[in-house]
Amino acid sequence: MKEKTLNNFGLKVLSVVLAIVLWLTIINMIDPADSKVISGIPVELLNQETLTDLGYTFEVLEGNTVSITVEGPVSVIDALTSADFYASADFSTISPLSDYVNIEVYCTKSSISGRNLDIILRNSAVKLNIENRESRTIDVEVELTGTPASGYAAGDYDVSPMSIKVTGAESVVESIAHVTAEYDIEGASLDISDNVKLKLYDEDGNEIDKNGLVLSRDEVRLKVPLLVKKVVPVNYAYTGTVKEGYKVSKITYSIENVVIAGTAAVVDTIDSIDLPAELIDISDLSANASYTVRISHYVPSGVKIISDVVSEVNISVEALITKEFEIPTDNIEIVNANDAFTYEFAKKSLTVTYSGLREDIEKVAIAGITAKVDVAGLATGNRTVKVQLENTNNCTVVGEYTVSVIVSK
Length: 409
Prior knowledge:
Blueprint: H1 2-6, H2 9-30, E1 33-46, H3 49-52, E2 57-62, E3 65-73, H4 74-77, E4 85-90, E5 100-107, E6 118-121, E7 125-131, E8 133-145, E9 152-154, E10 158-160, E11 163-169, H5 170-174, E12 178-184, E13 192-201, E14 214-215, E15 219-224, E16 226-235, E17 246-253, E18 257-262, H6 264-267, E19 273-274, E20 289-294, E21 304-305, E22 310-319, E23 321-328, E24 333-335, E25 342-345, E26 349-356, H7 358-361, E27 371-374, E28 381-389, E29 396-398, E30 401-408
Parallel strand pairs: 1-4, 8-12, 16-19, 24-27
Antiparallel strand pairs: 1-3, 2-7, 3-6, 4-5, 5-7, 8-11, 9-16, 10-15, 11-14, 12-13, 13-15, 16-18, 17-22, 18-21, 20-22, 23-26, 25-30, 26-29, 27-28, 28-30
């Protein structure tokens, strides 16, 4: 049986091929393939609420009807009309950034079901003019929550990109007040580098649903250095001299210490913040004055202040008063005396004047006044000697004074 099947096998295959070719030739002669253009097929717009529910309105610019080229047997395509085709455009596939919706066409005539037809669209999309659509470029804000590990502080962050473009319904886009990258740094002690999803908020802090909006970037790259903290004092100074007859009675400031943050290598070198005297010029003051100093301007590069930085400095100025004090000459020290002589003051007391603030003057005690005379080289006789007086209790000596010293052997 097998030998009969294989006998003249090649001739049998050739016969089958020739029969198929002959059949196709006859069919093509009887019902040849051709093409036909059919115009005016109406396009049904499906799922329009995809746009309208987002607040968009639209106008169809092109594509209310579609034209096609149909290729197939003449006996089939000759009888076809626009009524035999259904065209649709599904709005659920559109992006808010797109102005086109693709058209799909198929033949609805059941009598040609299964027949070999090729449908070629001559215009393949519905072109739209979408209204109430807006695009805005909005800066990205960073909100760090939580507290780093003890002894650390967050440095100046870097965010990339710094802004994004938001496109969507005009009413929604206009309501966006903040584009925020939120990140929790609770317990962090190492530098942070991470991708952060963006959130949108309105003016009242309510989160805005991103559905229906197109963002140029949905997330940003956030970098936050973790810095070492240290508490250091602030040293104040002033320049100039108050008006004659007045004196600075008190200096007060709202900030005595600040918390600085930076790399350990830099922070370790800083023991205080020394403000330049030029910031507080008291020249010719005769009344109290206030100064505002921004301390952050006077920290080294690479260091930031993470506590309050604006200090209010108050200078209190008071008029000086004078007061006379009668010093017993026994209180005056004699220096460089010659042991071969004796020295005696001609008077029992000396009246001197001190100038100072009332509070200081009232605290000056006669016993606390230091006075001395230098008798080196004096010969015998009644000699006039300059008295050397020291300022005391923030009060200064007014004028110069002499005493008579009787020098004898």
